[in-house]
Design brief:
Elements (H helix, E strand, L loop, with lengths): L3 H12 L4 E10 L3 H14 L3 E9 L4 E10 L3 H9 L3 E11 L1 H27 L3 H33 E9 L7 H4 L3 H23 L1
Parallel strand pairs: 1-5
Antiparallel strand pairs: 1-4, 2-3, 3-5
């Protein structure tokens, strides 16, 4: 029977070697987007990460910015915590995806394709007819393309596992509008115009009677 410590250790062992992709999303309301971006840049540098994308937009009312950070998996949660404390956090989401099976499958496909490539090279060396050589060359081209595809997909997964992604959405509060500008002047104007029209109609009727 496993003790609590042994069970915990066994669970830890199950996660060793697994490839997990981490993603985080933060929405923060800030007083000044420019100064907050500088703070996020400093935090990212201290965590040995980098900003892969930055978008700043401004419509008629609200200024906003979106930053995509790539942080080493080991510093993922610490970076989330530090950025969350910069200002008022309005939303926070964290997700993880286990891509171990996908990675192992790609490795197996790559090894099979490389073995097939070696076999085709051997056949090409033994081929004596031109049509045989051309047929083998076509197969080699197909296999080489597969190998390149598998390698690029493996590298992509490795980068996604090594560096977690944190997306930060920054927004400044909407500017307050003076009450005098919010007042709907058209309403009293319409009412006043109706009253004036009624008075005029009354005067006309009185003068005719």
């Amino acid at each position: 029977m496993l003790t609590l410590i042994e069970t915990s250790f066994a669970t830890e062992l199950e996660t060793i070697g697994r490839k997990i992709v981490y993603d985080g999303w933060l929405a923060i309301e800030v007083e000044n987007i420019g100064s907050t971006i500088e703070q996020i840049q400093r935090i990212t540098q201290e965590m040995k990460g980098f900003i892969s994308q930055m978008l700043i937009s401004k419509d008629s009312k609200v200024r906003s910015a979106s930053l995509t950070l790539r942080i080493s998996q080991a510093d993922f949660y610490a970076t989330l915590q530090r950025i969350s404390q910069l200002s008022e956090l309005t939303d926070k989401r964290v997700s993880s995806q286990d891509v171990t099976e996908r990675y192992v499958d790609l490795e197996a496909r790559l090894k099979n394709a490389q073995r097939e490539e070696q076999h085709l090279f051997q056949l090409f060396d033994k081929a004596q007819k031109v049509d045989e050589m051309l047929s083998i060359e076509r197969e080699l081209t197909r296999v080489c393309e597969q190998i390149e595809l598998y390698i690029s997909q493996l590298k992509y997964l490795e980068r996604r596992v090594e560096y977690a992604t944190i997306t930060v959405l920054l927004t400044e509060p909407s500017p307050s509008v003076p009450w005098i500008l919010e007042f709907k002047w058209d309403v009293p104007f319409k009412i006043g115009f109706q009253i004036l029209l009624t008075i005029i109609q009354g005067l006309i009727i009185t003068s005719l009677s």
